[in-house]
Task: structure prediction
Amino acid sequence: MTDMARQLLQELMGQYQDSGSRYTDANVCKDHLVDFCPNQLFVNTKADLGPCDLLHDDKLKEAYQKSSDRGRLGYEDAFYDRLQRLHGDLQRRVRRAMDRVTTEADEQLVNPYKEEKEEKAIIMDERIRRMLRQVEEHGEEGRVDEAIGLYIQAEKMKADLRVLKQRIDSVNPMFKNEKRLEVCDVCGAFLVPNDASKRLDAHKE
Result:
């Protein structure tokens, strides 16, 4: 059983079982007593805080909310301080993601094989230079037929290289109308605009 599943089960069972704890105990989540536990936000995203190791007991929450201790133990101050830190972290994450989206052309999306093409172009260019040197050597040695054969091969490879260089900066037709990645303005996650609507809705929820 995963930690998240264990925590959910613990919360469900807590409605029917007495945890044996008091809301002041160290093992009780004070954020849950005040309102909610931030660890339950952004689950399965890059901003996921992971499961909370503390006890989430709705009966203890109700008892705290009705008690005279409410607002007097510093739980609210600690809760809001944590929310402010979390908000600051998320805002920095969103700004970094926005900067990345606006400065990068999403190269892996619109031209996923650019680096591979560039490496192939370098190799082809070197082979052409080597073949032309051999053409000169064969010509000097009187091996005319071999020189002509190599020259024809080199010219054909030059033509292939020109085509390849044109393709290096060309946009894959499949992604010609592709939009840039968007950034979730809440958690900073990258979203594909035309992704399945269910997946986008699930993230926003």
Remarks:
- Residues 75-103 form the longest helix (29 residues).
- The first strand starts at residue 182 and ends at 183.
- Helices lie at 3-14, 30-34, 58-66, 75-103, 107-110, 114-140, 144-168, 197-204.
